[in-house]
Write a structure and sequence with these properties.
- With about 375 residues, this protein is α/β, with parallel strands linked by helices.
- The protein has 2 domains: about 220 residues, TIM Barrel; about 130 residues, Lyase, Ornithine Decarboxylase, Chain A, domain 1 (Beta Barrel).
- The strands form 3 sheets. Strands 1, 11, 12, 15, 16, 17, 18, 19, 20 and 21 form a 10-stranded mixed β-sheet that branches. Strands 2-3-4-5-6-8-9-10 form an 8-stranded parallel beta barrel, surrounded by 4 helices. It has a two-stranded antiparallel sheet with strand order 13-14.
- A hairpin with a 2-residue loop joins strand 19 and strand 20.
- The protein is elongated, with a radius of gyration of 24 Å.
Length: about 375
C-alpha cells in the first residue's frame, strides 16, 4: 500500500479504477443518438471517487461537459487545470457572479436577482456569460415554473452580457417505468420549449435526462444527457438493472487489525447485541461509520477475507468493525479484507451495503471517501 502525506499507512482505503469510469462513459454514450452531448456529473468530489481524476478520465473517454453542484466545486476543477465547460447545476449565490464570469463557469439561472447580478459582472468584465435556464416541471425544488419560462426570458432582454446557451429540467421519477408524473414532466418541458421558441428564443442545448432517464427513456435525451451515478458503475435504480451493463469503479478494502478467539455466549461490540453461538474467531477491521460504513448496517452485511464471506457482527463502531471468521478459514492480522469489491472470484457490491443500511448507493459512495485515503489506477 502507498503511504499518506505524513508517511503513515492507513490500513483501510478506497481504490478507484479509472478504466471503469472510461468504460461506463462509452457504454452510456452508446445509448444516445450520434451528436448527443454527454455531461459527466462529478459533484460531491465525484460521488466520493475524486472529481479531478474522474473528470479527466470521463473527458478522455468522450464526455463533453462536466456538472457540479456548487461554485466551489467548479473553481476546484479550474484550479486543477480542467478547461472543459463546467456547469453549476444549481443557481449560485449572488456573490458568485464575478467568479462565474472570470472563470468561464456555466451557471444555472432561476431568478431575476441572479440574472441582474450576473449581467452586472459580465458588463463590468466586458464579456458575455453563457447560462442555462433551469425549469421546474414538477420536482418543486428549484427553477422557473415551466409555464413562465418564455415570460421570464422576455424580462431578461434588457440585461447586457447574458447569453442563453441552454434550457434544462430535472426528473423526479425517471427511475419508475410507466410513471404518470414522469410523463407529465416531459409534457410540461416540451410545452415550455415550444413557448420559448415561439417567443423568439433559441433554447440551445436542451437537457433533462439523468442516469435513469438516459437508460430508460431515449425520448428524453434531447441535446444532452447528464450522467452521475451510472458514470461510477452503479445502477440508478432497480429498474435499470439488466438494461445496461456498468462496471463499478470503487473498491473498499482494509487490513485485519486483530484476531481473537471468544467463547460460547461472549458478546461483541457496544451493547453486546451479538453473542457467539459457540467458540468463534472474531477479526477486527480498522474502519467504521466515520468512514462511511453505516452503523445502521450492523449485523446485516459481510466482508471478504481469503475469498470467503465473513459476516459482520456486533454494532459497527466509529472507527472499527468486527466480523465472524468461518470455521476452517485461517485469518491473521495484516490479511486483506474487501468491504466492497472482488476477492477470490467473489464480489460484494455497494448496493448490498446500501441495502443493509436501508439507504441508496449514492449515499454510500459519497461517504466512503470522507476519511479513507483514495488511490486511483
Amino acid at each position: 500500500m502507498e503511504r499518506d502525506a505524513h508517511g503513515y499507512r492507513r490500513d483501510a482505503w478506497v481504490e478507484v479504477d479509472l478504466r471503469a469510469i472510461a468504460e461506463n462513459v462509452r457504454t452510456l454514450k452508446s445509448l444516445t443518438a450520434p451528436g448527443t452531448l454527454f455531461m459527466a456529473v462529478v459533484k460531491a468530489d465525484g460521488y466520493g471517487h475524486g472529481a479531478r481524476e474522474v473528470a479527466r478520465a470521463a473527458l478522455a473517454a468522450g464526455a463533453d461537459r462536466l456538472g457540479v453542484a456548487t461554485l466551489e466545486e467548479a473553481l476546484q476543477l479550474r484550479e486543477d487545470g480542467i478547461a472543459a465547460p463546467v456547469h453549476v447545476l444549481s443557481e449560485p449565490p449572488l456573490s458568485a457572479a464575478e467568479a462565474i464570469v472570470t472563470k468561464s463557469i456555466v451557471p444555472a439561472l432561476a431568478s431575476r436577482d441572479f440574472a441582474i447580478a450576473l449581467s452586472k459582472a459580465a458588463a463590468s468584465a466586458k464579456r458575455q456569460v453563457a447560462f442555462h435556464l433551469k425549469l421546474d416541471t414538477g420536482m418543486n425544488r428549484i427553477g422557473i415554473r415551466a409555464e413562465k419560462a418564455a415570460e421570464f426570458l422576455e424580462s431578461l432582454r434588457g440585461l447586457p452580457g447574458l447569453r442563453l446557451e441552454g434550457v434544462f429540467t430535472h426528473f423526479a421519477t425517471a427511475d419508475v417505468p410507466g410513471d404518470w408524473d414522469f410523463d407529465r414532466q416531459c409534457e410540461r418541458f416540451s410545452s415550455a420549449l415550444v413557448a420559448i421558441r415561439g417567443a423568439g428564443f433559441d433554447p440551445g442545448i436542451v437537457h433533462a435526462a439523468n442516469s435513469a432517464a438516459t437508460v430508460l427513456h431515449t425520448s428524453s435525451h434531447y441535446s444532452m444527457v447528464r450522467c452521475g451515478i451510472a458514470l461510477y458503475g452503479l445502477q440508478p435504480a432497480v429498474s435499470t438493472r439488466g438494461r445496461v451493463s456498468l462496471r463499478a469503479a470503487m473498491s473498499v478494502k482494509a487490513r485485519v487489525s486483530s484476531v481473537k478467539r471468544i467463547g460460547l455466549g461472549e458478546g461483541v461490540s457496544y451493547g453486546l447485541i451479538y453473542q457467539a453461538p459457540g467458540p468463534t474467531t472474531i477479526a477486527t477491521l480498522p474502519l467504521g461509520y466515520a468512514d462511511g460504513v453505516h452503523r445502521a448496517a450492523s449485523n446485516k452485511f459481510s466482508v471478504l477475507i481469503g475469498g470467503q464471506e465473513c459476516r459482520q457482527v456486533g454494532r459497527v463502531c466509529m472507527d472499527q468493525l468486527m466480523v465472524e471468521v468461518p470455521a476452517g478459514l485461517d485469518v491473521k492480522p495484516g490479511d486483506e479484507a474487501v468491504v466492497i469489491g472482488t476477492q477470490g472470484g467473489q464480489t460484494l457490491s455497494m448496493d448490498s451495503l446500501a441495502e443493509a443500511a436501508a439507504t441508496i448507493n449514492y449515499e454510500i459512495a459519497c461517504g466512503l471517501a470522507l476519511r479513507l485515503p483514495r488511490y486511483h489506477r
